[in-house]
Amino acid sequence: MPITICEVGPRDGLQNERTLLSTETKLALIDRVVAGGVRRLEAVSFAHPKRVPQMADAEQVMAGVPRGGGVSYIGLVLNERGFERAARAEVDEVNMVVLATETFSQRNQGMSVEASLRAWSRIARMAHDAGIRPSLTISAAFGCPFEGEVSPDRVRAIARQAVDAAPAEIALADTIGVGVPTQVTELVGAVRDIAPGVALRCHFHNTRNTGYANAVAAVSAGVETLDASAGGIGGCPFAPAATGNIATEDLAYLLERMGVATGVDVRAAAATGRWIGEQLGIEAPALVGRADPFPR
Amino acid sequence: MPITICEVGPRDGLQNERTLLSTETKLALIDRVVAGGVRRLEAVSFAHPKRVPQMADAEQVMAGVPRGGGVSYIGLVLNERGFERAARAEVDEVNMVVLATETFSQRNQGMSVEASLRAWSRIARMAHDAGIRPSLTISAAFGCPFEGEVSPDRVRAIARQAVDAAPAEIALADTIGVGVPTQVTELVGAVRDIAPGVALRCHFHNTRNTGYANAVAAVSAGVETLDASAGGIGGCPFAPAATGNIATEDLAYLLERMGVATGVDVRAAAATGRWIGEQLGIEAPALVGRADPFPR
């Protein structure tokens, strides 16, 4: 089975880097990613510009992305106002985030888990009406920076409530990079049981060097899509040494060499990873672009 | 099943770092590693001091290691002269390396694969006679920097010849960090079929971010021991950006959180990883020591 790599560098990656990039540079990143074979991207967030200044130019970015060729653009939305902006900007998909714990939900979204699930239902309905695919990400599903361990039952309960709104896809996110493969197998299995037939996606950070092992576990568990960012950018601005998302180029190398087709050109992706690191003035955490090509 | 983590930082790690450490600092590293719960270490190499100057003090290191407490020290040997030095230094085990390809074998050991297999047989006999456990590492089993892809049949043929000398253990090494989990499953299965009852060990480098996924695959395939280095040190001196071995602390975090006991104290290991990075004047590639403890 092929795997879709969903490029989240333009959104989750850049949102968590210290350096603010111009709309032009963001579009150059998206152009490179698409040229390298990626066909699905989380391109922007429609969060309030005061809360997430890195994404204030979401409309301008969406106006400039290369359309056609089967490329699908996701906009992150957290409320109806965000959805309306996303719809006007002609995203192909919207992704809404529900946090797995109360503390993180209050800190990140200023509302309870219950309230964000109600917002998800409203957004999903609006999306279906507008012909936009709605997906839901359950964040901090593998552990919470405030509450610690997250019970799989908590993730199950959220998935059960979310499924009524007919998500096109449910994603499990290891937001702080604490998860391990056994958790992946358990949580993916749990969500598949609750939402049979719904597409599944996983989102891993490599903060503790478990991200790629988790990706392999997710593929084994039958997940269709994995998030990754060019260069592995997205280190949290409050923990400068922490790495970000798993890297598109390293994930593509790993999967392609395992015989799992991704459609991504590993060398093009590695070049993009190095390039975005230069734009951000950092050494991107991805490793394939630093190593000798193999096989030559 | 618990997994043994074999600490290779003092040998494979330090041998491939630019900075030469004093015997005292090497012994401080070994003391820290043992205090952190590791019970098996590749401590030194008895290669010719002119070829591997980093290991010229092998005898002095072995004279100073903390003995007892069930700790087993491995010395790397490449020929009979090396074995004699190792035996005099009272190692508990010797490890011999056979390269999987002719080109790498000539470049690394100045002899053919066939010749190194004959040397292995002689060394294994001497070891058994001396009551020292002999293990064999098949290096570059997952790919060769000179010849590219390595056929599993080549690894099978080497294992078949090596098994006559009654190895206490066979190790599969991804010397240049190109391997992926599907290869691990295939090669471990192949060697287990050829050498039933012989303990198996795997040695991974994280050069292309596949090392930890490979470690999980090795555990699933029933391998008893995994090599790792404190801090993940061992980046090749000729490719400064490349990472070294998988890191002891990151591997211990991954396995312990999966419910696989290692006996290693993750926080102590992370502190040792940061410490050895400071001694070498580098930022060690391990990630657990840079991240927030989880769970707190």
Automatic annotation (TrEMBL), chains A, B:
InterPro entries: Aldolase_TIM, HMGL, PYR_CT
Entry GO MF terms: hydroxymethylglutaryl-CoA lyase activity; metal ion binding; transferase activity
Example of a GO biological process term: ketone body biosynthetic process
Keyword flag Transferase: yes
Keywords for this protein: Lyase, Metal-binding, Pyruvate, Transferase
Annotated family: Belongs to the HMG-CoA lyase family.
Taxonomy, superkingdom: Bacteria
Name of protein: Pyruvate carboxyltransferase
The Pyruvate carboxyltransferase domain, residue ranges: 3-270
Pfam families per the UniProt record, alphabetical: HMGL-like
PANTHER family documented for this protein: HYDROXYMETHYLGLUTARYL-COA LYASE
